[in-house]
Amino acid sequence: MVAMNDPLLNSLGRPHGFEALAVEGELPDDLRGTLYRAGPGLFERFGVRVGHTFEADGAITAMRLGDDGVHGGSKVVMGRGFQEEERAGRQLYTSKARKTTRLANVFRQRSKATGNTSVMSWQGRLFALMEAAGPQEMHPDDLTTLGVDTLGLIKGGFSAHPKRVGDTLINFGTRYGRKMELDIFSLPASGAPKCLGAVEMGWAGMVHDFAVTERDAVFVHGPVKLSVLRALFGSGDIADFFQWKPDLGTEIVVAPFDDLGAPIRVQTGPFWTWHLANAYNEGDDVVLDLCRYPDFNTINTLNGDEDSGAEMPALWRYRVNRRTRSVAAEILLDRPCDFPLVHASRVATAHRYIWLVGEEAGQRHVFRFDTRAPGQIADRDSWTPPQGHVPSEAVIVPKGGATAETDVWALTLVHAPERAQSYLAVLDGARLAEGPVACAWFDQTIPTTYHGTWVPDA
Questions:
Q1: Structural domain includes residue 2
Q2: Number of domains forming the structure of the chain
Q3: What's residue 110's pLDDT?
Q4: Closest alpha carbon to 38 in 456, 357, 452
Q5: Is residue 1 situated within a structural domain?
Q6: For residues 168 and 152, what is the distance between their CA atoms, to the nearest angstrom?
Q7: 5 Ramachandran zone, left/alpha/beta (phi>0; psi -120 to 50)
Q8: CATH value at residue 226
Q9: Nearest 10 degrees: CA dihedral of 76, 77, 78, 79?
């Protein structure tokens, strides 16, 4: 995890458009396109640091791989809310805003789309995502901010974790009201998007990620409750708005696409998860792999609090039986890991491998886990960068349209503290331990990024 004085939690030093990056090694001939990543970009505004990392204005960082090398850019998301703050000369939408301003925002139903969590490419358009607001459209060629687009459907939030199943993106958005509801959206490769319906949750809490099978949307609702009064009257930051309530247990909700109003709900012991790897159907079972935390203290660790007491997550598998409406769980890998991804062709279907970022003795590494060999990581399937280097989530790109799960390139943005620079590392997914086949260097530190997407050249 990062500490408060870590350069990854400092603001982007020099926003810029696409510039040539210094390349070491040789770029694969079959890897042509752009990697877009999102994360918090401005941790301080008007001389005041934001109350929590999740409140920071986002930055979109892009790395374009072409025959002429690699060009990279990184720009802050500057939407309507950002520009209002610029005109006011103070923070209006964070926990550092005046209490009267925050209360007015609630009653006027106004929020700021910071775009600080993930990136979505849809129908040739690029969107910066954060779960509490609509998608913020960005220009894919120069990274300028174009503005929020609700797509004519979005009435609340829009998750930062859309799932691509074939040519269609499936996502959800959270609406708070008398009840907490999750709207389910379908965004096809062509034509208009649709809202498929809504799923009611058992309490007002937080759902960050989800999974899909060929038949269902699958949600894990951890025992975290929204404190409405704290949120209304501006008591603390986002970490204070949500309270850990282990007596609630964790609810797994399996919502069939053809009947979203009649989901299967099962209760299990309390745990928290930020990220789900994948889900699929196996007989009467819905199989779900995720990175499980024992509690919600991670919300403080993500803000640089090394003394939060948060335990590290491990990889678990849950099975929900449709017929008996029961749940069984087993641990797959009892080692610290998160940011799980599967091969794009395996989303919503059975997978063998999961790609993750792990941490041992304070050093992060990127590895591939074989679900047929629980508890083990083969040496060849892990890349540990030089000491102190911090890799991000590895975006998985199939080689030349290949569908084999290991026949991929793994792209991770890495911070090198001794050089105060960040670099793109291109790893061969079949031979991770051999290290990058190519690295492309920015001339500065890129602040922490959470998630990304690969957009291949047409």
A1: no
A2: 1
A3: 85
A4: 452
A5: no
A6: 18
A7: alpha
A8: 2.130.10
A9: 180
